[in-house]
Design brief:
Elements: E1 6-9, E2 13-18, H1 36-44, E3 49-50, E4 59-65, H2 68-79, E5 84-92, E6 99-108, E7 116-119, E8 124-136, E9 145-152, H3 159-166, H4 185-188, E10 207-215, E11 222-226, H5 231-243
Parallel strand pairs: 4-10
Antiparallel strand pairs: 1-2, 2-4, 3-4, 5-9, 5-10, 6-7, 6-8, 8-9, 10-11
């Protein structure tokens, strides 16, 4: 596999920018052997350990520890929920409020392994804060879209995905908790004269792990790391801002 971009590195930790479609580590039998950790350990050694996980379909920041001391220190912050985790999502649909919090009890669906479901009890609590940054209203039969900042306070599997799906504004291209919405340039640009076999602007889960803020294991000072926006999301936002702005907004 191709080398991953290194966002930050020092003697205690290293952070990578993971593309969508690549697992952090093997999750089930039959999965591709190409993972972030298989590649990283071949390059930096077997002691390297990921401090947290991202869904394979989610792009963005993956933080790893180089030593056990650093791993224990960082893992303790994730467990105590003192790490600030920031994600960004493009939703298919417009949230009712500009800021809202979703609290749900969720667990793995016994009938659908790997898929989470909402339950009243006998599950795990989950909480995410959301803030809408930009709204792109519906037009000519296409749905509206929103650019949303997500701050999960817990780290459950598919948490942000099921939370946004539960309020009726799922992440674009979410095959598990989403809808059939698609974002094409022809849906936005009047008089579009492109290819007959036009491809969507975004063809994968529109969720990106943007940043982490934590206490560094050596300096004991706050550190913030940021993963740049992938090209497909950046291009989609560029066209939405150009062609799908509400009247009077620039």
């Amino acid at each position: 596999m191709a080398p991953l971009p290194v966002i930050y590195e020092d003697e205690a930790l290293i952070a990578f920018d993971k593309p969508s479609g690549l697992a952090v580590s093997p999750e089930r039998h039959g999965q591709s052997p190409d993972t972030v950790m298989a590649w990283a350990r071949a390059r930096w050694g077997p002691e390297l350990t990921n401090v947290h996980r991202l869904d394979a379909d989610t792009s963005g920041l993956v933080l790893c520890a180089k030593t056990k001391v650093a791993l224990d220190f960082l893992s303790g912050q994730f467990q105590s929920k003192t790490v600030v985790k920031t994600y960004h999502a493009l939703t298919a649909g417009l949230p009712v409020a500009d800021a809202f919090t979703v609290d749900l009890v969720i667990k793995e669906d016994e009938a659908k392994p790997g898929v989470m479901c909402i339950v009243k009890k006998h599950g795990q609590t989950s909480q995410t804060e959301f803030a809408v940054g930009e709204r792109f209203p519906p037009s000519a039969g296409r749905p509206g879209f929103a650019w949303v900042e997500c701050r999960p306070h817990t780290g459950r599997r598919h948490q942000i995905r099921i939370h946004l799906g539960s309020v009726g504004t799922p992440i674009l291209n979410d095959p598990l908790y989403g809808n059939e919405a698609c974002l094409r340039l022809s849906d936005l640009k009047r008089g579009y004269k492109g290819r007959a076999d036009e491809k969507p602007l975004i063809a994968r889960l529109a969720l990106h792990a943007t940043g982490l803020t934590f206490t560094h294991p050596l300096s004991r000072e706050k550190q913030s790391l940021t993963a740049p926006l992938p090209n497909d999301l950046a291009v989609a936002l560029k066209y939405l801002r150009k062609f799908a702005r509400p009247a009077g907004r620039r």
